[in-house]
Write a structure and sequence with these properties.
Structural class: alpha+beta
Number of domains: 2
Number of helices: 16
Largest sheet: 6 strands, mixed
CATH class of the largest domain: Alpha Beta
Distance between the termini: 50 Å
CATH superfamily of the largest domain: ATPase, nucleotide binding domain
CATH architecture of the largest domain: 2-Layer Sandwich
Shape: globular
Helix content: 25-40%
């Protein structure tokens, strides 16, 4: 098949930084890795979370130049490029395809009023994190900017535009916008009109999963530090980070569930049919291979743990080692880890709370463990909803930066009563983007292999799986009762 002996690059545009890798399809190994860090724009009003798209392009250029300069890497063998990106961000461009303002991100909760208004108007839950509420916010709060907008894109769409000079969207990432119908895999014109009458005409056309959606332009080659010889390199459709991670972690067939521990945490599984949750807790996303990806997302995961680490000025390794010496105390310290508000449960204006600390218990080890437990309990409540919807989740493949914390994985296994298998490749989104590019190029060359077959070949475990323990699970279950009671008392009912 065309592309079998080639190299494929995958880039993941995240919230805390951009990561890239190059894989050798024939040898099935990663040849090069690189990353660049960045943060949110400081000094914004409460709830606002923004990054400028120029930040992503600058990071992409730095990462790509490191990757493609790796010793022994034969750039002439590059056959395809895939891009993964943080979901839900709002990128608005003028008639020259220049950003009109910073992008409002998935973790921006300043649009909670607009989200509640859209939820009532559409008679279904629209989380504040979804792009739809950001469009309504922009039209209402910055009407002149909205009038000048000629394109509305998601973050990975913008990177594809910068690399190819062509704009397109794809069903996986688009299904987290709020105006896309995942069941039909199409834009919902009525919903677009309910958000803003001018929205639909500003959206990019939809590209089919597995199709070559664009090709590297001369400007794209300049950004990546490549020469004229690489102009025309195929670009796959790309994907939202969760959809790309599903490919990289093998959630490309039914029966496989993935736990991704990043700034936010997600649990998702492949489905051959749409899965609709009336409560809105489990998002009815499409995947980026032609199927569906029911997904639970909590906004506070490694970001919450990092808050504790930074406060005590220690390393995660030190804190993990000290916290591992402690046991879960059902009647002891409790952390509600909602530093950024929360999506599930729907508490966009919530803030973190620490409860139940007595004399001598306010140590860095106990606070750290209580925060690990708090995130785990919130995820476990969401997983219970996925099981109610008959999504198999008895074993979870763990990926993302948080998957290196073995204590946390054990707490999660106990809280969820599920086996947790850490995968060797933590950067599943960047890998998934590269694998999607390989699948796309091989299909275009007449290949009949599936994306699933490619993905499964890469899913080796990193270490021994973590099995749930019923005794520890029972202690966490009692702590969960207090967690739910405290949440209700502090923040009221959720829907």
């Amino acid at each position: 098949m065309s592309g079998e002996r080639g190299l494929f690059a995958g880039f993941d545009v995240g919230t805390q930084g951009l990561k890239g890798l190059v894989i050798d399809a024939a040898e099935r190994r990663v040849l090069a890795r690189a990353s660049a860090s960045y943060g949110l724009i400081p000094g914004l009003p409460p709830g606002a979370a923004e990054q400028h798209p120029d930040t992503w392009i600058e990071a992409l250029s730095r990462v790509a130049r490191q990757l493609f300069a790796a010793p022994g890497l034969e750039i002439a063998r590059l056959r395809g490029i895939g891009v993964s990106g943080q979901q839900h961000g709002l990128v608005v461009l003028d008639e020259g395809d220049r950003p009109l303002r910073a992008a409002k991100l998935w973790c921006d909760t300043s649009t909670d009023v607009e989200a509640a208004e859209l939820s009532a108007r559409l008679a279904r839950p629209v989380p504040a994190g979804f792009t739809a509420s950001k469009v309504l916010w922009l039209a209402r709060h910055e009407p002149e900017t909205w009038k000048r907008a000629r394109r509305v894109l998601l973050p990975h769409d913008y990177i594809n535009l910068a690399l190819s000079s062509a704009a397109w969207s794809e069903a996986g990432d688009a299904s987290g916008s709020g105006w896309f119908d995942p069941a039909r895999r199409a834009v919902d014109s009525d919903v677009c009109a309910a958000i803003d009458p001018a929205l639909e005409e500003r959206l990019a056309p939809l590209a089919e999963a597995g199709s070559i959606a664009g090709r590297l332009s001369a400007e794209g080659a300049r950004i990546l530090g490549l020469t004229a010889g690489q102009v025309g390199t195929p670009l796959s459709t790309g994907a939202g980070d969760n959809m790309a991670s599903a490919i990289g972690a093998g959630a490309t067939r039914e029966g496989i569930a993935v736990l991704s521990l990043g700034t936010s945490a997600t649990i998702f599984a492949h489905s051959a049919r749409p899965v609709l949750d009336p409560s809105g807790s489990v998002a009815p996303f499409c995947d980026s291979t032609g199927g569906w990806l029911p997904l639970l997302c909590v906004m506070n995961a490694t970001g919450a743990i990092e808050e504790v680490r930074a406060a005590f000025g220690a390393t995660h390794m030190e804190l993990e080692r000290e916290a591992a010496q402690l046991e879960t105390d059902p009647d002891g310290p409790l952390v509600l880890p909602y530093f950024m508000g929360e999506r599930v449960p729907n508490l966009p204006r919530a803030r973190a709370a620490m409860l139940g600390f007595g004399p001598g218990s306010f140590t860095r080890a106990r606070v750290y463990r209580a925060c690990l437990e708090g995130v785990a309990l919130n995820l476990a409540a969401g997983l219970a909803r996925m099981r109610d919807l008959r999504i198999p989740c008895e074993e979870l493949r763990a990926v993302g930066g948080g998957s290196t914390n073995r204590l946390w994985l054990q707490i999660l296994a106990d809280a969820m009563a599920a086996r947790v298998v850490p995968l060797a490749e933590q950067e599943s989104a960047a890998l998934g983007a590269a694998l999607q590019a390989q699948w796309t190029v091989e299909r275009a060359g007449g290949g009949t292999g599936t994306c699933d077959a490619l993905a499964q070949a890469w899913c080796a475990p990193r270490s021994v799986p973590l099995e749930p323990d019923s005794r520890r699970g029972a202690a966490l279950g009692r702590l969960a009762e207090r967690f739910r009671a405290a949440q209700g008392a502090l923040f009221g009912p959720t829907h």
